[in-house]
């Protein structure tokens, strides 16, 4: 009988075959639960031995030029079981049009032969709003749990901010006809010393940091007023105010050097460097937020919040004091605030510890630019005809494929404190294909799998459904079976409008899995195929 291989879940396709099959095979009765059941076919399950190996990632695409990741990591994650990660960020800075240090009418009135205006910075800081869950709104203040953070939150990592001398370009400098791209290990040169007020700032995330008090002072240091700064989801203004309604959200505030900022920013207001965004990008090319150290935590920050005030920015508060130049008396003060979003071209920077994993019975998966796993499903093509020999052996069996799945068990004796809730698989390039591509089931089926689950004994595992992919190979619709890659899932992994795959990763999660080694027993990695075949 002619070989027929079909995934029975496609009910419409199956019904098309039904009339053809019933003419030669009587008593073809039913399909249920994706398995063909009738008096002429046997249903069975077989396993295929596969090979799974560690695959170190050198770099990944890390910029937002063609696709906005939204989330960026800052901090340090150190685990004895995985590569130490120091995650930093580089970003351009957005400016507002018509920035004025002193309003024109104020200059006319107070910049005279007997009066002058003195500008002093009250504070300048990098604002980094945390992603957090409100657990209690007590009378003493809101209580939050910080989200999207791994590692030891009680330990500090070292933070420094630098101006970069590397121009961030959307076009490839070597070929301006092409779009540029930055990787996780791209090099961005630093200009000068750290911009923060205290070098090597010790960064510890604190969910209690929800309010900031800024003392406004005249040029003679006299206290004028204390501003209460809060950021809330109900904030309707372009900047924080003391009248912001709603529950205040937690944020980090890292003080910058006031003298440096005044020289680089405030003193340049009104100059050609601030005439346009392009002019400013040439003048101040970007800021590097650098994390380093051997301990601490790794925090994910949202750079694409629908409310601009909840996105990372540089905040400067300054006071203009009109004084009598003859007596030195203060005539009037004018309090001002400017906000500069960390916007435009951005890129993640991942400094990974070089680590060689032993060849044993396990594999290591780590997000960012850590490690993946390579999966060889069908082995070599010994006869060199372009088809793996094991595929040819399976084709000869004339199976009707009901389901094909890959299962990977977690080695729970390793570090599972940052366990990913989902893994993902994709295809590498082969002899007939170039670039990275999606596995067919990711876009042909509603469920691809890869979610963390448990078996009947409570053992942690990840299972993928790759029925369409295997069906195409065993039917002859596809001949090439390139190496598959297994990685920590990233929200950008799911296919959009094409089968092409781009490897972003800003998830810091990590997991140790068992490979195909026989020593792993029932937890070894296997390809399982459920099929039906014609009875003899």
UniProtKB/TrEMBL annotation:
PROSITE patterns per the UniProt record, alphabetical: PROKAR_LIPOPROTEIN (PS51257)
Pfam family, one: DUF4270
Signal peptide stretch: 1-22
Domain of life of the source: Bacteria
InterPro entries the record matches: DUF4270
Keyword annotations of the record: Signal
Protein name in UniProt: DUF4270 domain-containing protein
